[in-house]
Design goal:
Rossmann fold, single chain, alpha/beta, 39% helix, disordered N terminus, six-stranded parallel beta sheet
Length: 254
């Protein structure tokens, strides 16, 4: 990162975090609903370790099956689920689905947003440009394409995506990996829910899929209540208790 880029990002972070702190200063309404969204290289079952922990606290939980086609279609899928909720709802996303949380999080049913090692762009921001201001995470070199469909190679999945899971479990997750369309990566968010909704962020300190310093930058910029988890990119599977507790806090149940 050159000095000019660093100065510009620092100034933008300071201005954004002042604005977003006012949103976090407003306590989130107590929520009884939680909507979860998965990212790339996964499906809705990636939340399988978190869901029963939330349900045990009496929360109504729905895991969205992200189509991984285009950003507008992915946002629409989340919005349809949000529209079915009957009151304040925490919207939580992992990895790429932070884009969806950022856009769909302005839905009136959403009381708080939670990012788990997730992208958190500003409205209209080119996330790819933002990410390039930090060293690339190793997993990016492991993406392979068949035409317009992308997947993570097995080696990258096991080492760079789910490196702190038992190998047998990581291989099972690799087997159900859902491909994404190239068009999905070109999308830009129209909104930035974290500017108006209380926000939480879980940084994965051992992440090899998104640079942990990029995660810290985005969390600081949004003024989010932030925790650091010694985990790979999939902290929702390797440390589900910690992630569930963060969501419970956002729901006013912590």
């Amino acid at each position: 990162m050159d000095r000019r880029t660093f100065v510009n990002l620092t100034a933008a972070t300071a201005a954004s975090s002042v604005l977003s702190r006012s949103a976090f200063a407003q306590p989130a309404p107590k929520a009884k609903n939680v909507v979860l969204v998965h990212g790339l290289f996964a499906d809705g079952s990636s939340w399988s370790e978190v869901i029963p922990r939330l349900q045990a606290k009496g929360l109504n939980v729905t895991s969205v099956q992200n189509p991984l086609t285009t950003l507008p279609e992915a946002v629409a899928a989340a919005e349809r689920v949000l529209a079915r909720q009957d009151g304040p709802t925490v919207l939580a996303g992992h990895s790429f689905s932070g884009m969806i949380v950022t856009d769909a999080g302005v839905h009136p049913n959403v009381s708080a947003v939670v990012y788990v090692a997730a992208r958190a762009p500003d409205a209209g921001e080119d996330y790819t440009v933002l990410a390039k201001t930090f060293p690339a995470a190793p997993a990016s070199a492991g993406i392979v394409f068949d035409g317009d469909e992308g997947r993570l190679s097995e080696a990258a999945f096991l080492h760079d995506f789910a490196g702190d899971l038992p190998e047998a479990k990581a291989k099972a997750l690799y087997a159900v990996q859902w491909p994404f369309h190239k068009a999905l990566l070109a999308g830009k968010t129209k909104h930035a829910a974290w500017r108006s909704k209380p926000s939480w962020y879980a940084v994965s300190t051992e992440d090899r899929t998104i640079n942990p310093d990029l995660e810290r930058f985005m969390a600081k910029r949004m003024g989010a209540k932030t925790i650091e988890v010694k985990a790979s990119h999939v902290s929702l599977l390797s440390q589900p208790e910690t992630i569930a507790n963060l969501i419970l806090e956002a729901a006013g149940q912590g």
